[in-house]
């Protein structure tokens, strides 16, 4: 899929920061807190100097058989093949070229991109990209000027994921636990954890330790 981007008159090439880590380690919360601490939260989105995007926007569209599997918690969303690597790479290179880009909003209840909503990413000084496999694909990994890995232990992550998936992602307990044991945990060990070595900064436990990152700026 081609990204939907427009060149801005005043070209701005942002500093790209990647944030990786296992599911529910606190990646989104870290991004949100960084944006808050840098005083960006209440700015109009066209004027923000620091913005974040999620790798989840780049989950690929599923075919009919995969959709049925996904609805039963039997699709592996933690495998690199679940992502549209080309679309993500293209979008990030467009962002880096100073273009205004529209990226999909991902819907975890339908396991697909929203049909009507997109997020517009305007040129900014810093763009933070978070995702479980943000460092997995070499071409994407090489785009980041700085890489953070949020290191939160597996028990804590599971304890955060269960209520989140039930309350926010429309899942039931059995489905969350089955998906975790069958796909999430093994894929974390095979694909996500080995990318920790690419990080410039490791943030233990997440949001409470973003001071380490802010200090490095
Ligand atoms: N430091 C923290 N302490 C307690 N709960 C947290 C913390 N960081 C995140 N959470 C909660 O854990 C869940 C997952 O956090 P989130 O930032 O969405 O993780 P990720 O983006 O890595 O999946 C959310 O419900 C969030 O509110
Ligand atoms: N349709 C989907 C898509 C993804 N997931 C799970 O989301 C996790 C990644 O998001 P985090 O916020 O937790 O980093 C990943 O572990 C997938 O299992 C899903 O359940 N359904």
Automatic annotation (TrEMBL):
Entry superkingdom: Eukaryota
Keyword check for ATP-binding: yes
Enzyme nomenclature, EC number: 2.7.1.48
Annotated keywords: ATP-binding, Kinase, Nucleotide-binding, Transferase
Pathway: Pyrimidine metabolism; CTP biosynthesis via salvage pathway; CTP from cytidine: step 1/3; Pyrimidine metabolism; UMP biosynthesis via salvage pathway; UMP from uridine: step 1/1
Reaction(s) catalysed (UniProt annotation): cytidine + ATP = CMP + ADP + H(+); uridine + ATP = UMP + ADP + H(+)
Biological process annotations from GO: CTP salvage; UMP salvage
CDD domains hit by this protein: UMPK
InterPro entries: P-loop_NTPase (IPR027417), PRK/URK (IPR006083), Uridine_kinase-like (IPR000764)
KW Glycoprotein (keyword) present: no
Pfam hit, one: PRK
GO terms assigned for molecular function: ATP binding; uridine kinase activity
Phosphoribulokinase/uridine kinase domain ranges (all copies): 16-209
SUPFAM superfamilies, A to Z: P-loop containing nucleoside triphosphate hydrolases
Family: Belongs to the uridine kinase family.
Full protein name: uridine/cytidine kinase
């Amino acid at each position: 899929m081609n990204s939907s981007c427009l060149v801005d008159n005043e070209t701005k090439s942002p500093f790209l920061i990647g944030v990786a880590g296992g599911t529910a380690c606190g990646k989104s919360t870290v991004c949100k807190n960084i944006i808050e601490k840098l005083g960006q939260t209440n700015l109009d989105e066209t004027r923000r100097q620091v913005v974040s995007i999620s790798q989840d926007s780049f989950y690929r569209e599923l075919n009919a058989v995969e959709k049925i599997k996904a609805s039963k918690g039997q699709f592996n969303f933690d495998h690199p093949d679940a992502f549209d690597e080309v679309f993500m790479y293209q979008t990030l290179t467009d962002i880096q070229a100073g273009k205004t880009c529209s990226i999909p909003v991902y819907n975890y209840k339908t396991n697909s991109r929203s049909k009507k909503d997109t997020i517009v990413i305007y040129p900014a000084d810093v763009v933070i990209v978070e995702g479980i496999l943000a460092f997995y694909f070499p071409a994407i990994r090489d785009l980041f000027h700085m890489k953070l890995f949020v290191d939160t232990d597996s028990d804590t992550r599971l304890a955060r994921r269960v209520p989140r998936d039930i309350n926010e992602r429309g899942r039931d307990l059995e489905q969350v636990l089955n998906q975790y044991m069958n796909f999430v945990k093994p894929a974390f060990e095979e694909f996500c954890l080995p990318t920790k070595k690419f990080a410039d900064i490791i943030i233990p436990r997440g949001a409470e330790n973003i001071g380490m990152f802010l200090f490095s700026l």
